[in-house]
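ok trying again, last paste got cut off:
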Amino acid sequence: MERQELQNRRAVNQIWNGAGRYDVQPEQAAFDEDGDPELYLNTVMGLAHRDYDFARFQPMLHAFQQQPQGGLYSDIFWLGLEHAVYKKESPRRPALESLRWQHARRLLAVSGEAGDPRQIPALRRIWASRVLGQPHTEDNWQTALLDELAFAPELDEQQLIHRTEELLYRYFRRARRSITDRQWAAWAGRSLTKGGGVRFIKPNALRALSHTDSGGGAGQAPKLLSFLQGRTPEPILRRYVEDCFGVSMLTPSELAEAERLLCTGVHKNCRLHFTKGAPPDRPPAPNAAWDAEHFRQQRAKNRAYYQAHLAENQMTLHQLTQKLQNVLLLRQDDGGAGARAGRLQPGLAWRAAALDDEQVFLRRSPDEPEELSVDILLDGSASQNLQQEKLATQAYLIAESLTRCHIPVRVSFFCSVSGCTVLRILRDFGHPEENGACFDYTAAGWNRDGLALRAAGDLIRYAPGPAPRHLMILLTDASPNDSRRIPPTAENPLGCAYEDAAGVVDTAAQVRTLQRQGVRVSAVFMGEDSSAGAAAQIYGKNMARIRGMDQLARAAGRLIQNEIRELGD
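nice, full thing came through this time. structure:
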């Protein structure tokens, strides 16, 4: 923690040195594979703020990040901007050439063989080889693109934006933006002043790291393999997640200890944020103000949706509650018959030792607290953007039905922002009055499922709930995907993206770890057919698949019923 904070401060100082001023508040900084600040790239970032009105680039970068190929588009822009900055500044900064050369040499030393020639790793290797003047192979497509990415230093911000968009259209078939899109993007990075003019503000970090697929469902997130290998400085990141999700429920020392224990292995250099949603006692930072307001509006939409479908929701609630109560009734002692679990009957206790008769208990009645605690863990990543109202409603129905059956329940959601996995508790054990807080659910960012499960497991140890047996139910699309890469290892010296097989293997391992710790893990899977195999690999047979979000409560109810039936077995 202390080392990373020191490195973050060094990186910001490098950016300030390039910018020549201290009022720049960078949302990202550049680090090498060992986590040390990358002097050349941080200097380039600072010089970009010095030479350009950088806020004018932000609407375009924000638009990129809302698209499946957003990481690639951002990389292309930075490749071009780096050339313009270097050509502009190298005549008056002779040391820049040496820094550039050293960076290119290190990049080739650690990058290994590139894969797809149309992706950034291959283009980055060619860029480095060109800088060093080393022989290399490049095809006609790569040559043409990189030649055109040699942006001239005299281009202004609008010309650079136009040039980038034209290249993306011609080489990557990214659709040109309409006039309406351009107008929206121009205003997305502005806010009105009291005098009626405009001033540019930074885009928020969350939107810059959010992702949605074109179909609005559970799709693949963009691969943010940034040319700058950006990492948001920790103080900015901490304040941002507090402004958006609520202050930490842990003290700084408790959080540091949790990160020391949990952010290891494939999650090294990641961060955690545990919160119950309590707002900070200060106004949000400018980079979080838009998101904080957006989330407030989404919470209002969630509640309005429930009321608009009140009759249907009440019927679902009644049916789900009745089914749970029926299962509980089947476990109720009938005529005083013994059971192997429940309340001990003192008059029959002797039978256990004398007759080896374990049926010396009375089953609990349905109006008594059960032996089961339930954790509902919701995917809060941006893949759920278009169904937030439905998901919040379904979470409420689950919580309310369990409350009516006197089954302890906790409802939380998780997402990841710039390498920080957020676990937001909506409704905690022992607080039935908090069921309505399920409507505070919002979706944004990424989903590092393995780390979220680690955090949820740690939360169970920290606050286990009143019942001895614990069931965790996840809503998931079985597509772990995070912007923070898995760090290099001896077996994988280049590291890899936290996605696809790597993300699935890690998530499955965390599920098995929880099961060994005595936590029963089940999942409600709502994803594409292509992810069904991954879901089975992670959760095995303890899974229910749904085709629509309105089926969530019923599916979760079936999983809970199955668990109740097994109580006492």
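cool. The CA atoms of residues 46 and 216 lie 36 Å apart. The chain has three domains: 2-190+203-233, 245-278+289-328+370-566, 334-362.
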